[in-house]
Amino acid sequence: MNGRVAAANGRPEGRPSRQINVILRSQEPPVLSSAVPEKESTPAQKNVVQHSLYQEIQKELDKLVGLENIKDIVFEIYALLQITQMRQEAGLANGGQVYHMVFKGNPGTGKTTVARIIAKLFQRMGVLTKGHLIEVERADLVGEYIGHTAQKTRDLVKKALGGILFIDEAYSLARGGEKDFGKEAIDCLVKSMEDFKNQFVLILAGYSDEIDFFLQTNPGLPSRFPIQVEFPDYSVDQLIQISELMAKERDYILMPQAIMKLRQHLIQEKTESEHAFSNARYVRNTIEKTIRNQAVRLLNTYANANPGKLELMTLRTEDFKLDLKGTV
Ligand SMILES: Nc1ncnc2c1ncn2[C@@H]1O[C@H](COP(=O)(O)OP(=O)(O)OP(=O)(O)O)[C@@H](O)[C@H]1O
Ligand SMILES: [Mg+2]
Questions:
Q1: Which of 65, 144, 193, 298 is 20 to 30 A distant from 263 in Cα terms?
Q2: DSSP class of residue 165?
Q3: Complete DSSP assignment for 130-146
Q4: Are strands 253-254 and 227-231 parallel, antiparallel or unpaired?
Q5: What is d(CA 187, CA 180) in angstroms, rounded to the nearest whole number?
Q6: How distant, in Å, are the alpha carbons of 35, 143, 174 from that of 181?
């Protein structure tokens, strides 16, 4: 399972129960054996429950703009969990699946958001008991003296038991080379993955090339993270869609002129800041700053009266005070 899904119906959308039925009641003839009865009774009731569970997850995924490859991977994980359960009940080997993952992508591409949804999926499917997410970075894991790092790392793993331990900028653990305490943290994590097998899921996140470098620093690492997910940068169109969504969630609307201004700005910002451009996070900061600007404008304009409802909702061109280089 490596970032790609052979979707059963060959298309990214329309994942609900119909697709599952294709898997369960495959038209293909059974490969082997007289031991497999030709017709089995399907536990239909149970499937309905399981699918409504996925629909809940899908609702959250649907709120995210783009990320089609990631939505496919989440479905793939769901399908695997579901089938593994059925295989267990049928007395078949379950293969000891490992669900540790690597999320590769630039800042603000949705990594933390997706990790939270996956945590919920694992919890609902009974793989994780709690389904919480502990998000940490180097400073949370690495200590200042010998032995301190192992202690800090172990404590965090314990906190993450039953949920997901999400390590942002994981490559920074390998930054200082052999003598750095970051290495101790990595060794401790690798050991914890054995000691607490199936009790927590580890997600490493960071820029693509840096994560690849990180995985090479320890020969035990790559095989321990069988699920690798790429989070692409958003296009300008997607960033605009995200802006509109974020405004809508907060009960604001963007005037068409304001959208044009924002679009121009995003095109420029994306090209000029490249690596540092923080995608949807940038958009969120921009919208929040714009909302503050609108509040000031309204207070100044309506000194002796209340603005109407529509005016309270409207973000105008002049509310978008946009400078380059992230200084919104
Ligand atoms: N596809 C999307 N659709 C709508 N909103 C999104 C999408 N992706 C991210 N966001 C929003 O953008 C913000 C940043 O997302 P998130 O924190 O998940 O990114 P990240 O990749 O973890 O960033 P960082 O690397 O900086 O930690 C959040 O408010 C999130 O809800
Ligand atoms: Mg994050």
A1: 298
A2: E
A3: S--EEEE-HHHH--SST
A4: unpaired
A5: 12
A6: 55, 7, 9
117 lines ligand 1 (CB under 6 A): no
Question: DSSP H helical segments within 25-103, as ranges?
Answer: 44-62, 68-89
CA 183, CA 176: separation in Å to the nearest integer? 8
Question: Which ligand lies nearest the alpha carbon of 108?
Answer: 1
CATH code for residues 17-25+43-231: 3.40.50.300
Per-residue confidence band for 276, with pLDDT thresholds at 50, 70 and 90:
confident
208 lines ligand 1 (CB under 6 A): no
Domain map (residue ranges) of the chain: 17-25+43-231, 236-319
pTM: 0.81
Q: Which ligand is nearest to the CA of 284?
A: 1
Residue located via tokens 């990631």: 70
Query: Going by C-beta distance under 8 Å and a sequence separation of 6 or more, which residues neighbour residue 56?
Result: 124
Ligand 1: centre distance to CA 178 (Å): 33
Ligand 1 atom closest to 245 (CA):
4
* CATH 1.10.10.10 holds for 236-319: no
Neighbours of 91 (CB within 10 A): 6
Phi, psi of 199 (to 5 degrees): -100, -15
Distance of CA 159 to the CA centre of its chain: 20
Least confident of 27-36, 152-161, 278-287: 27-36
**Is ligand 1 within 6 A of the CB of residue 98?**
no
pLDDT of 126 reads 83
